[in-house]
Each structure stands twice: as structure tokens, then as C-alpha cells.
Amino acid sequence: MKRGPECNTMVRLPFANREAAGRALAAELARRGLHRATPSGEVEVIVLALPRGGVPVGREVAHALHAPLDVVIVRKLGVPWQPELAMGAIAGGGFQTLDEGLVRELRVSREEIAATLAKERRELERREKLYRGHRPAIDVRGRTVVLVDDGLATGSTMLVAARYVKSLQPARLVVAVPLGSAEACERIRAEAVECVCLATPEPFVAVGEWYADFPQTSDAEVQQALEEFAGSRVS
């Protein structure tokens, strides 16, 4: 197994489930000195998870770091005839990334791209209303943000999430995942973003193959996690 320069050499794959992966990731982040409060008692670390699969991981990280938990709504732009293959992603505030090389290689038409964008924007808006309700997003300005997902395959979704969070002016942004492809991790680091990844197994085909139990995370689970941390939110 090949590991990137920021990988924990003690991790063993597969992870039992997302919760186990979250605990392993939390231990590594704690080892690096990430914690909730500054010496003056102000909340410094905020955990943002990518729903849906990143939320069970982020939940464990937030518990371990005694940090608030919120979500960053990002939607993958899947190739029309192969939805699991990301040709880009979108987030709030009009943020968008598109893999022009892949689009050209697969000959995805502009009409197909436009239709995919419209569909995913509708889903993004639906999830914003469903997950948060009337609660505003946590203000991350001037704080350390740990941006969590259950893994990185191409990195497209995380890339647009990182760009979006950077626009909110955090003091520090750390992308943290239990595992990912070496190429995806380098893609994130190329954005001048810290990337903590516990393992970069090769060959890397899909995130789910490195979990013994990898069920789909439901909207209800995301809502429950956010409700659980509602009392720890900061303005």
C-alpha cells in the first residue's frame, strides 16, 4: 500500500465502517494538536462535513475534538451515463468546478452539462432547506475549519467545498479524510490547503471498497447529527 507524505502508517484497511474511520481520523487530528478552544476560551475548531457520507465521519471527529458540527452542501456533477464518475461539482455561492479534460475525453455535450447542473442545483437547494431548516450556517471566519468526508476518489467534490470554505475566510482550513487516492490528495494540496489523509491505497477504484460496511447515509441520519450538535453551534 502506497501512502502519501501526510498519511498515518499505522492505519489498517478496510475500516469497519464510517464511524470507525471517523475515530481513527479524530485520533490523528488530536495528535496534531487540533482542539476546540483557544486559551481565552473562544471556539476555534469547527468541523464541517460533506453530506451525506461524510457526516458519520465528521460526527465522530466533532465529538472527539469537542467541536461544533455543520455541513457544507456540495453536489457532484456526474457524467450523465456514468453518474458515479465526477466531471465536476457545485456548492453554495455559485461555486463550481468542471473537469474540462474529462468532459472533452468523454465528449459530454454542453447541453448535457447544463441539464446536470440544473438537476444538481435543485438538489443542493433541497438539502440546504432539509438539513438546516431555519438555522444559519456556522460562521467560520477567523477559525480553524476541519473539512471532512469519508474519502477522496477524484477529489472534485472536496475541491469545490474547499474553495467555498476558503471564501468564508477561515484562519486555517484542514481537509481531513480517512483515505483517498494519491492524485486526489495532491489535487487538494495544490490549492494550498492542508490535507490529512490516513491512507492512500493503490490501486484506488472507489472509496467504498476500503470499508467493510458502507451503507448509504440517509437524510434522516444527517438531520439527527446536526440536531445533536445544535446546542454547540457558534454564531
Tag the structure with descriptive keywords.
three-stranded antiparallel sheet; 37% helix; 235 residues; five-stranded parallel sheet; Rossmann fold; 2 domains; globular; disordered N terminus; alpha/beta
Q: Which word captures the global form?
A: globular
Secondary-structure element series: HEHEEEEHHEHEHEH
Q: Evaluate the radius of gyration.
A: 17 Å
- How many strand units? 8
Stated plainly, the CATH topology of the largest domain is called: Rossmann fold
Characterization of this structure:
By secondary structure, this protein is of the alpha/beta class. The protein is built from 7 helices and 8 strands, in the order αβαββββααβαβαβα. The protein has 2 domains: about 150 residues, 3-Layer(aba) Sandwich (Rossmann fold), CATH 3.40.50; about 55 residues, no CATH class. The strands form 2 sheets. A 5-stranded parallel beta sheet has the order 2-1-6-7-8, sandwiched between helices. Helix 6 links the parallel strand 7 and strand 8. Helix 1 packs parallel to helix 2 and helix 4 crosses helix 7. The radius of gyration is 17 Å and the shape is globular. The chain starts with 17 loop residues before the first helix and ends in a 7-residue tail after the last helix.
